[in-house]
Specification:
By secondary structure, the chain is α/β, with parallel strands linked by helices. It has 8 helices and 5 strands, in the order E-H-E-H-H-H-E-H-E-H-H-E-H.
Length: about 160
């Protein structure tokens, strides 16, 4: 059974999912939204999209299946997901950038093609999501320093 790590945006979940065959990045957008084929997932973030009527149960079903197949499953960090994990006794860890490091988060958003609306919304939740996260029933809390990525942290922990 794999472990779940809920990571804040720009921690490097997508990079890990592409680089390691035993790691699954469960990007939430294709589960939450009816996706447009002419734009990348990152370009669609912050745009008006139709919500998938199966959301969020379709995402939780995918997480539950993925932890049976992968060593590490990376998921979106959102308070409602923690509520689901806690209600169903699902263990998880959290990865979060240092809260004094917004500029690095913003830089990564720009580099990956996120629009201004997405970046603005992310900045609005940056501190509140951190404050919520540290109160949760997580197994481990990984705080990324400076320009550190989740990959750097997981290597230090000998998880990859």
């Amino acid at each position: 059974m794999g472990i779940i790590i809920a990571g804040f945006a720009t921690c490097g979940k997508s990079v890990l999912g592409k680089k390691y065959s035993n790691i699954k990045d469960l990007e939430s957008s294709p589960f939450k939204n009816i996706m447009k084929n002419d734009l990348s997932v990152e370009e669609q973030k912050g745009t008006k999209r139709e919500i998938n009527p199966m959301w969020p149960q379709n995402y939780y079903n995918a997480i539950n299946e993925a932890i049976k197949k992968y060593d590490i499953v990376l998921v979106q960090l959102k308070p409602e997901h923690f509520d689901y994990f806690d209600k169903h006794n699902i263990k998880y860890s959290i990865a979060y950038p240092n809260i004094n490091n917004w500029k690095e988060v913003e830089k990564r958003c720009i580099e990956r093609g996120n629009n201004k609306a997405f970046i603005k919304r992310l900045k609005e939740v940056f501190i509140p999501y951190y404050e919520d996260s540290i109160k949760r029933n997580y197994e481990k809390l990984y705080i990324l320093k400076d320009n550190e990525t989740l990959e750097d942290v997981l290597k230090k922990e000998d998880l990859i």
